[in-house]
Amino acid sequence: RGLVSSIVAIGYNLGWTAVLPAFGYLIKGWKWLSVAGGILMLASVIAWFFVPDSPRHLMENKDDKVAAMNSLKRIATLFGRKLDLDEIELESSKKDTAAPPSYLETLKDFIHFPELRIQLLIQMFQWIILAFLYYGFNFSWGKLGKNIYWSYAFSGISEVSAALICWFGQDVFGRRMTMLSFNIIGGASFLLALIPLSFGSQNVLTMQQLMCLIGSMFVSGAWGTSYLYVAEQSPTNHRGKMSAVCSISARLGSFAGPQASLLFTWNKSATLVFFGILSISAGMVSLRLPETKGKKSPNSAQEVEDRRKVFLSKT
């Protein structure tokens, strides 16, 4: 999972910090730039027709064994594996044969199960801050560097590096520690950017640019980790809803983030301190979330509640 999520993040980062700036450099005029972006979006839609459904989702939510077996067959074909379906027996983890819970019933779980609600609120908070910081910097490189194209080029390198470090951190230290450390390192980097130092005979690189690149890299890595983290924390019946709510929360941050360029124009030092505090706070709340590395994802809201009780009993 860590490797796959990092590969996806690399694709996103290359598109945002490499392909888009290249289009902006080569294509003059926002209308033709929009047309080029629309063509790429249509191409990405076609790819979804080749993505199979989750067998686990089909079994837990729809109790459709035939569809789950067909999905397994498609996954095996995509990866070039031979799969003997006659030797595979799929079973739902549910104890009873009752119908899957309705959409409204799963929404009520966020009221009836406090641990599920707390985890969702923490994740929403993190996604708002990470989106704000991510887009705040990606819309501000022109004000932090002398050349906007070189600034975005270095940003792209840091983004790809973040995805690779993210993969290493997730598999070695776990999801929670990666979220905690990446956000704190990012926040500390923003604060270190206040030191007035320059490097090179002609001040080619400043301390502010270097630390902002490092901080942005770790913020990007934390956000990449959050996609995997929220999916592993969420019960099967709630995974889509929790991911969607977190994504909606991130849109609040992404709306406000580009306005950070105005803050850099007003006062760079104050803005960097503000960014540092936000990043560190997003990391600290990770301590309240469970570690999911090497653990089976929960199937129900009750299982999330039970796991929290077991954790409290051991502390």
Question: Which helices and strands, and how do they pair?
Answer:
Blueprint: H1 2-26, H2 30-47, H3 55-61, H4 65-78, H5 103-112, H6 114-138, H7 141-144, H8 148-173, H9 175-192, E1 198-199, E2 205-206, H10 207-233, H11 239-256, H12 260-266, H13 268-284, H14 301-314
Antiparallel strand pairs: 1-2
Average pLDDT over all residues? 81
Strand count, sense and closure of the main sheet?
2 strands, antiparallel
Q: Note the run of SSEs as H and E.
A: HHHHHHHHHEEHHHHH
Low-confidence stretches: none
What strand line-up does the widest sheet have?
Answer: 1-2
Measured as a percent range, the helix fraction is over 70%
Q: What radius of gyration results from the CA coordinates? A: 22 Å
Number of helices: 14
Shape: globular
What amount of the residues lies in strands?
under 5%
- End-to-end separation in angstroms reads 29 Å
Structural class: mainly alpha
Quantity of strands, as a count: 2
